Amino acid sequence: MECDAMKIAFLSFINLEQAGSKKQSIIRELSLRVNVMVNHSGVISKRGDGLAKGLKSDVAEELEVKKPNTQEL
Q1: How far apart are CA 70 and CA 54, in angstroms?
Q2: What DSSP string runs through 8-25?
Q3: pLDDT for 29-68, tens place per residue?
Q4: Which residues have CB under 8 Å from 18's CB, separation 6+?
Q5: How many Å apart are CA 25 and CA 49, to the nearest integer?
Q6: % helix, strand, coil for the chain, step of 5
């Protein structure tokens, strides 16, 4: 259940970044955000980018890549 919530939060963050016409965050920036989220829970202490890379691959099929932003058009 926690894993699904993390996937939804990760996907929502990326979609909001894209909708706001912001430059896409690099994996290092995404890793820092994911680690802060996980560490805040107090269950585990996480460092590195392994979790962010895993989340990115898990939600990859739901991301829209190279599709023009309607706001920009």
Answers
A1: 29
A2: HHHHHHHHHHHHTTPPPP
A3: 888 888 888 777 766 666 677 777 888 888 777 776 665 5
A4: 24, 64, 69
A5: 13
A6: 65, 0, 35
Tokens at residue 22, please?
């912001």
**Whole-angstrom distance, CA of residue 42 vs CA of residue 39:** 5
Taking CA atoms, 37 is separated from 6, 21, 41, 71, in Å, by 9, 24, 7, 30
Q: How far apart are CA 44 and CA 3, in angstroms?
A: 13
To the question of pTM greater than 0.70 for the whole model, the response is: no
